[in-house]
Amino acid sequence: MPLTLYRLKPAFQSLLRPLVTRLARRGVTANVVTTAALLGSVALGALLALDPARTTLFLLLPVWMLVRMGLNAIDGMLAREFGQQSALGAYLNELADVVSDAALMLPFVFVSPFGWASVGAVIFLATVSEMAGALGPMVGAPRRYDGPMGKSDRAFVFGALALAVGLLGGLPGWTFWLMPVIGFAILINTINRVRNGVRAANCGAPGSDATHSTAAHSTPAHSTPTHSDAARS
Hints:
233 residues; mainly alpha; Four Helix Bundle (Hemerythrin (Met), subunit A)
């Protein structure tokens, strides 16, 4: 899984582990944390999309991206390390990620020089990419997180763009080309996820460096892919 910020996740999780332990002791569940991240993302995306002229509001997005990354790590750690596995968590994990990503990217439709075509294409490709990763366990492969331009990478790029919008009041014309570049990178990661997933399935590999605890939120007696902190960005 080259060229992806996902490799930094283990260190990030280590920093959060004391907090996760305290949350577990207080009865906080993985699904509650996942839902909080989803609702926060949708709320912020709606706020920015409904009032894009207030460019200073975009300064909230990079802050939320960091918070969301923490929440996404926390929910997976709660599921994996504190026995909070559930089939519902598996669905919630994957669906909440896709919806949250779309909600946070959508406001850039209203930021010049972008538009519906360029941002919509990126949202579509990102959704296909996550589907390609999530399908791995269905063919006997691990859940794939291959890069480039995985969830963490997209969070970094869109966070940086939001920071620029908030500080500068807009973006220069040349940034139009960023969306095609991002889309192309996501297309490459989709190909990597399918190719490496097929290779892992054919080899019968139990895991890889791109594997995370996709089964961490499943019931122990079932092999359905489940809640994973690594599936977050």
